[in-house]
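Progress note, sequence design subtask.
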C-alpha cells in the first residue's frame, strides 16, 4: 500500500527562519496562505493587480509583486493558474531564485510536461490538495484537514521530502493524511478525471426525462439542483463508493446495482477509458491542448456557445431565479454577450 504521512511525520520547524511566498492568491493561494499564517509560518503574498489582489489586501496582506515576493522567499508556492505558470516562472520567478530555494506546486502538470524546467539548484516538490481551495481553509479551521498527493521531482538538497512534509503540515493536509505519489501519477489521475463526459450524461438524462413528459424543474431538482447529490457524495467519502448504497432504499439498490447493469457495457466503457489514458500518456492530449491555446481557446468558446444554446441552460436559469440563486432579470448564461 502507498505510504501516508501524518502530523507526527512532519517537522514544521524546518520552516523556522524561512520566508514562504504564496504566488497567486486565487483558489488555492488564499487558503494556503491563511493556513500557513495560522501555523506560525512567515508568509508573503505576491499577485498581479486583479480581483485576487483586492482579496489579499482585504485579508490584511501587504501585497507584493510576484517578482518581489519570489526574491524574498526561500520556499515558493506556485499557485497561479496552470495556464499562466510558465510565463510567471520565466518573467518573474526564475530570475529571483537562489541556490537552495524550494518550489512547490499544487499540480504536477507544468513540471511533468516540461512547460517549466526548474533551475538545477532548486528543489522541486508537490503538495496537491484533493480539495478545492475553500475546503482547504474550512477543513483546516474545523481541525479535520484534507487529503493531498505529495511528491518530489528534484532533490538537490537531499532534504526535499522533509521540506515537502513541512509544507504539507503547514497547510493542514497531514492532519488527515498526505499520500506519497509522483508527478506523473498526479497528472494522469487529474487529467483522466477531467476527461469524463459526466456533464453530457447528465444532460442526456435531462433530455430523456423531459421527452418522457416530466417537467424541466422537477428533473433538474432531482438530478442536481436540490443538492441531494452532495449528501450522497459525502456518504461515498465517509462510507465507501458502493457501501453508501446501504443508506438508500431497497428500490434504489435494486435500480442502481441490479437493473442498471443491462444498460451498462463495462468492457466497452473500459475500452474508452483506456483510450483516454493512452491519449494522456502518449502526449496526444497535451499537443491538442497546446494547439488550442495557440488559437486563443476558440474551441472552448465554441463549445460554451453550443452548450449555452441547449434548453437545459435557459430552464435552469429560470429555476435558479425562482429559487433566489440568481438575480431576477439577469440574462441567462451566454446571453449577456448577445
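Output:
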Amino acid at each position: 500500500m502507498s505510504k501516508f504521512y501524518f502530523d507526527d511525520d512532519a517537522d514544521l520547524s524546518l520552516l523556522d527562519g524561512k520566508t514562504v511566498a504564496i504566488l497567486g492568491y486565487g483558489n488555492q493561494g488564499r487558503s494556503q496562505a491563511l493556513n500557513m499564517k495560522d501555523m506560525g509560518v512567515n508568509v508573503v503574498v505576491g499577485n498581479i493587480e486583479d480581483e485576487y489582489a483586492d482579496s489579499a489586501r482585504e485579508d490584511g496582506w501587504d501585497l507584493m509583486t510576484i517578482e518581489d515576493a519570489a526574491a524574498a522567499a526561500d520556499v515558493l508556492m506556485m499557485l497561479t493558474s496552470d495556464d499562466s505558470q510558465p510565463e510567471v516562472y520565466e518573467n518573474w520567478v526564475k530570475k529571483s531564485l537562489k541556490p537552495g530555494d524550494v518550489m512547490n506546486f499544487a499540480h504536477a502538470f507544468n513540471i511533468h510536461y516540461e512547460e517549466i524546467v526548474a533551475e538545477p539548484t532548486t528543489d522541486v516538490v508537490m503538495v496537491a490538495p484533493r480539495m478545492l481551495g475553500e475546503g482547504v481553509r474550512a477543513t483546516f479551521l474545523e481541525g479535520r484537514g484534507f487529503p493531498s498527493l505529495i511528491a518530489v521531482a528534484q532533490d538537490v538538497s537531499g532534504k526535499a521530502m522533509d521540506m515537502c512534509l513541512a509544507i504539507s503540515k503547514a497547510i493542514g493536509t497531514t492532519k488527515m493524511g498526505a499520500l506519497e505519489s509522483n508527478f506523473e501519477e498526479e497528472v494522469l489521475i487529474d487529467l483522466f478525471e477531467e476527461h469524463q463526459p459526466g456533464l453530457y450524461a447528465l444532460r442526456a438524462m435531462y433530455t430523456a426525462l423531459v421527452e418522457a413528459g416530466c417537467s424541466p424543474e422537477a428533473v433538474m431538482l432531482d438530478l442536481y439542483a436540490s443538492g441531494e447529490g452532495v449528501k450522497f457524495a459525502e456518504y461515498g467519502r465517509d462510507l465507501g463508493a458502493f457501501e453508501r448504497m446501504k443508506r438508500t432504499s431497497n428500490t434504489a439498490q435494486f435500480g442502481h446495482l441490479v437493473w442498471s447493469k443491462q444498460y451498462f457495457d463495462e468492457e466497452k466503457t473500459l475500452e474508452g477509458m483506456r483510450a483516454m489514458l493512452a491519449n494522456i500518456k502518449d502526449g496526444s492530449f497535451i499537443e491538442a491542448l497546446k494547439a488550442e491555446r495557440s488559437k486563443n481557446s476558440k474551441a472552448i468558446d465554441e463549445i460554451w456557445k453550443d452548450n449555452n444554446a441547449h434548453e437545459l441552460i435557459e430552464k435552469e436559469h429560470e429555476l435558479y431565479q425562482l429559487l433566489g440563486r440568481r438575480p431576477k432579470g439577469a440574462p441567462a448564461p451566454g446571453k449577456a454577450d448577445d
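The chain has 16 helices and eight strands. Work on this subtask will continue into the next period as scheduled.
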